[in-house]
Amino acid sequence: MSFNVFSGSFGQIFKRSRKNSHEYKNENATFELIKSSILVAFSGALRIHLAFLLMYIQSNILVCIAGGLIIYTVYTLDRALGSEEDSVNRKELNGSNKKVGLTVSLLAFMVGTYILAGEEMLPLAFIPFVTGYLYSKGIKIGKFALKLKGGLGVKNIVVGLTWGIFIAGLAGSGCRNLIPVVLIFIFFGVKLFINSTIYDFKDIAGDTLAGINTLPVSLGVRKTRNLLTGMHLFSHLVIGVALIHGALAFEPLIVLYSFVCGLICIQKFTHPEYEEFPSQKMERTLLVDGESTSITGLRIAGYLIA
Fold first, then answer.
1. 23-305 in CATH: which number?
2. pTM for the whole thing?
């Protein structure tokens, strides 16, 4: 009898411990969901700042912050809404509280749109928001259905076009000359197309499972790497010529660092890896998402030294 009481008590303790462990795991996953897009948003805000600099325009800090908040909203919404491939590609988010993620992202969107409304740039806030929803969930009205996810390279084209327009639009809203705006769109549009494709290499397993025809899945590693290298060389050649002829501000550090860092990322991170070590993930994050942070830091350091 005493043994049964003891074993029953032990069982209750084990169940309670397992329950607490499960709750802790879900809370940790929710925290991961909330913070997963912070670096991308911060990097995006700095890209807007760099776009201002390249266009001979005084950087507007409020616009950069608002842009970062909109970027955070779109990426957090995508992860909170979830998709089949995310169960493989982002296992750390499994079990997260989606309502918390949706609430935080919508609050960020409200603050971002409020700032942009004050700067008379409100329509630009809805371009990535609407595009992001069409990509993640799509819309269906009767027999008509529209979803941007799934086609060959569609994801990367959507990323490049959306954020290229967003960055160039925010930085160039007061620019009377269209040429610098187009050049900034090409520069950041191509860069973000490439960055999104680089991330597809680590997501090959999940994308294949979900039937998403990303470039690495459809074209193969070598052809995709050659495509990215060609696009990278082309965009930096265009920007380099623009700098020489004065179409953009003479900021050789921005272009040179971007050129070297981009080549390293294309050669180093375009290999299918189903399991990535923490050190490799950190290195990829710093070089891909942290590029604009590094450029800004180097630029500030150069001014201090001078």
1. 1.10.600
2. 0.82
